[in-house]
Amino acid sequence: MAVGRPSIDVVADRREDLSTPIDVVLVGGGIMSATLGTILRLLEPSWTIRVYERLDAVAQESSNAWNNAGTGHAALCELNYTPQRPDGTVDITKAVAINEQFQVSRELWQHLVSADLLPDPSGFISSTPHMTFVRGAENVEFLRRRHAAMAAHPLFADLEFSDDPDVIARWAPLLLDERADGLPVAATRASDGTDVDFGALTRHLTDFLTANGVDLLLEHEVTSISRRRDGGWRLKVADRSWNARERHSTVDARFVFVGAGGGALPLLQKSGIPEIKGYGGFPISGVFLRTTNPEIVARHHAKVYGKADVGSPPMSVPHLDTRVVDGGTSLMFGPYAGFSTKFLKKGSLLDLFRSVRPSNILTMLTVAKDNWDLTAYLIREVTKSRWSKFRALRDFMPTADPKDWEFITAGQRVQVMKTKPGSRGGVLEFGTELVTSADGSIAGLLGASPGASTAVPAMVDLLERCFPDRFPAWHRELATMMPSLDNGQWDSDEELAHLADDAEVQRAV
């Protein structure tokens, strides 16, 4: 396979030849486009692939390390993935599915590192225990039941539980230092958790792509997508660079993936595919507290998730996280939600209003009517003083001092609103949603968490849905990259031996 070692970003600058459509156009320079581009380059090295990114570098929106929590979402610590049933038992179905998806992502990264197509994984992933921490007798009992249900499954067999303050203090001292409320406490701990710098990973994947014939056009914004008579797509592109020779151009493509984060919904709407009708977006901004004080950072090595207040949405779950970004370690606490009508951090205040269509207005109004608790939560968050927000950190870390912490603005999330099955109303989704056209010639990803952590299985799902005629032939090669796709069944002793040789890489990734 004609692939080489990643080098530096290469920005293509050429006049378009409309007589030869590009095989694959990827809109957006984030983790989703980089992942899909990488898989396709490995599967079909002869295909022409081009990436359009509206900003002056890749991974500047949701994939940027400071615009997300960097949690390798494996459902080890997030309580919203393990709801309690009416009878008091804990449902781990979603946790199992998310953990399996993250393992697939790690398998692809491992494969790329083993093949020398990605650099040292320590540059984008680090070992960071995942913990859940609760207070109060009722919450302690729930966490005990959750642990029992999860530990019975092979994926979570190593999950530890303790309600002993001394043990928890050894796991994460800052949680219990000077805690005087007298409430019982409990925690679970998964030592195999990770912290992922998705920005660095996106840049590495993009380096691989540009070193292997993929065009990357920075400061180029796709402004319109329309169907061609032959079934392909015509994209209008604006060159936003200061020295552009031509401000506007047109390109034809056989397949288009819209991985533009919050910008995906408007572009899919412009494409006119019926599958996007009924979809809307609800934008939510985020803020975190961060400290780089080395004395504080040295005393906390974990991602610790708590429990959201009653009536608060899943995105409000408080967590105190170790972050490793560009080789530096810090702690981050949050999130604090806010409201903006922008769909992207560097977007327009008109984004929300421009997304309203006759086909989705009923969906959006129904969601607004049925989610007053979310509206009330956002109002509370927006009107909180800085000190009120800091008190939430004090609940987690009693010794926190304001002089050690700074507020940073995180990325924009656009929660999915879609038509409720069997009705004309709408429902608010807190996950991710893959939207594909009936003929498989265009697709886009909407939504937020777990997002980047499940980029690989999401893109494999896209390949199966959009290229059903080619997918059977691709499956064997995909399974060598990601054994979980074949349920761990290998086709030859040589492949099994190759996996064993990669044991050191597996531990790293």
From TrEMBL:
Entry EC no(s): 1.1.5.4
Keywords assigned by UniProt, alphabetized: FAD, Flavoprotein, Oxidoreductase, Tricarboxylic acid cycle
The UniProt record lists the keyword GTP-binding: no
Cofactor(s) named in the record: FAD
Substrates-to-products reaction catalysed: (S)-malate + a quinone = a quinol + oxaloacetate
Name of a matching Pfam family: Mqo
Pathway(s) of this molecule: Carbohydrate metabolism; tricarboxylic acid cycle; oxaloacetate from (S)-malate (quinone route): step 1/1
EC main group: oxidoreductase
UniProt-recorded Gene Ontology molecular function terms: (S)-2-hydroxyglutarate dehydrogenase activity; L-malate dehydrogenase (quinone) activity
Source organism superkingdom: Bacteria
Gene Ontology BP term (one): tricarboxylic acid cycle
Family: Belongs to the MQO family.
NCBIfam families recorded: mal_quin_oxido, PRK05257.1-1, PRK05257.1-4, PRK05257.2-1, PRK05257.3-1, PRK05257.3-2, PRK13339.1
HAMAP family documented for this protein: MQO
Name of the protein described by the UniProt record: Probable malate:quinone oxidoreductase
